[in-house]
Design goal:
Blueprint (H helix, E strand, L loop, with lengths): L2 E12 L2 E8 L27 H10 L6 E5 L9 H10 L3 E6 L4 H9 L5 E5 L7 H5 L5 H12 L4 E8 L9 H5 L7 E6 L13
Parallel strand pairs: 2-3, 3-4, 4-5, 5-6, 6-7
Antiparallel strand pairs: 1-2
Helix pairs in contact: 3-5
Length: 204
């Protein structure tokens, strides 16, 4: 796993649970408004700030004091060893929440099928016709739709999220986005905040 950041405690990122946050390094999207832009580039293991052993050692020392771990990014599903990492976290007794852009349904299927995640939050960037503009790359609509279907049908607690970025997305786009989502799935709308994402990615 390439890990670009770590936050030891949060009460706001995993609904109903206290959690640590693991920020994976590397993303396959190039969202022009990304507030975690330092996590986009691919780095080597020697260039990243945190090792798996460091993270897992901390989590082992906090067993019984924290409820969960959020794996976010970057985009976690581009990491080929994500299932093994999630399995190691769950072996310590933690619930796992995954934040994802939903671009890699095959990895999502592996994680969900193996019971390695307890909560999934997927960003739904835009109506399908405008997806590539918001993602910053050509984005296959089929992958987005497949991921939505996998998550909604998994029986795992989940939510879909859309960030309204001034000049790129507006309230008028919300009906088209919601038409992609199955009835009963939570959809959270959030306004883009130009916050310093790097401040959250610290050992704290």
């Amino acid at each position: 796993m390439l890990i670009g950041g770590f936050q030891k405690f949060s009460l706001s990122d995993f609904p109903g649970r206290s959690a640590a946050l693991v920020f994976t390094q590397g993303c396959n999207f190039r969202c022009p408004w990304c507030h975690n832009a330092s996590l986009i580039p691919w780095l080597t293991r020697t260039e990243t700030a945190f090792s798996e052993d460091l993270i897992l050692g901390f989590l082992a020392s906090r067993a019984g004091m924290l409820d969960g771990v959020v794996i976010t990014g970057g985009e976690p599903t581009v990491q080929h060893d994500l299932p093994d990492f999630a399995r190691r976290i769950k072996s310590l007794g933690y619930a796992v929440k995954l934040d994802t852009n939903g671009s890699l349904p095959r990895m999502l299927s592996r994680l969900l099928g193996a019971g390695l995640v307890d909560y999934v939050a997927m960003d739904v960037k835009a109506p399908l016709g405008r997806y590539s503009a918001l993602a910053g790359i050509e984005t296959p609509a089929e992958a987005v739709e497949e991921s939505i279907s996998l998550i909604a049908g998994s029986g795992v607690e989940h939510e879909f999220r859309t960030t309204l970025v001034d000049g790129m997305l507006s309230e008028s786009d919300i009906p088209a986005i919601r038409s992609l989502l199955p009835p009963g799935s939570k959809h959270r709308i959030q306004k883009y905040r130009n916050a310093a994402g790097d401040a959250a990615r610290r050992a704290g």
